[in-house]
Write a structure and sequence with these properties.
By secondary structure, the chain is of the alpha/beta class. It is built from nine helices and ten strands. Strand 9 and strand 10 form a beta hairpin.
Amino acid sequence: MGGISDVAATITPLSASSLSMIELENIIRRYRTGGQTVQALAGVSLHIDRGEFVAITGSSGSGKSTLLNVLGCLDRPDEGRYLLESVDVAGLDDAALSDARNQRIGFVFQSFHLMPRLTVLENVLLPLRFSRVAPGHDVPTRARELLERVGLGERTHHRPSELSGGQMQRAAIARSLVLNPALLLADEPTGNLDSRSAADILDLLRELNAAGQTVVMVTHDMGLAAEAPRQVRLKDGRIDHDQRQ
């Protein structure tokens, strides 16, 4: 079975001519709530290169969830510019945005979002059902390789209810990687896990990053964020701190 380095080697960017994965320029996002306008992002500019591991932190209401939605092409900013692999996201129609989310971005959530009636392998293959682009590799074989690598090689035919929390998150990570995304977005990936399982998931994310995967992790856990090579802290919709270790 191939390892993480073999899997990561097949990741192909939209634009190989640039080292840039994410470029945000003065991103502003406003919401109307209770008859008032709330500015969730108040001019965020951020550059993330391919292969970086970045932790985004901030207290509740800091704008980190809104920023994650913008990065994941789940929400459009009111002002500013977002380049994903040197492609201006504002120029993409709904179909192209859907393709970007499916093909270019892998999502890992706190609540796993595994389908209870599907086996682990079927869950990992689920993104293929929503793909409008035929993958250029053997996805079922890749799915099994990923499950082997994350320690679930003997659980491929189990249902999520037969897994521990840490195992479910491992399955979710394998699913997020099955279509070779250039960018992995992890939203509180250890939030529902015990400390040992959380440490295992962090180690797995580090392995992926060491093999070349770009990882952006959103977390309120400052201890977890401190383990990332780069920490970006939001406060009141602005970047308050940006540090590389």
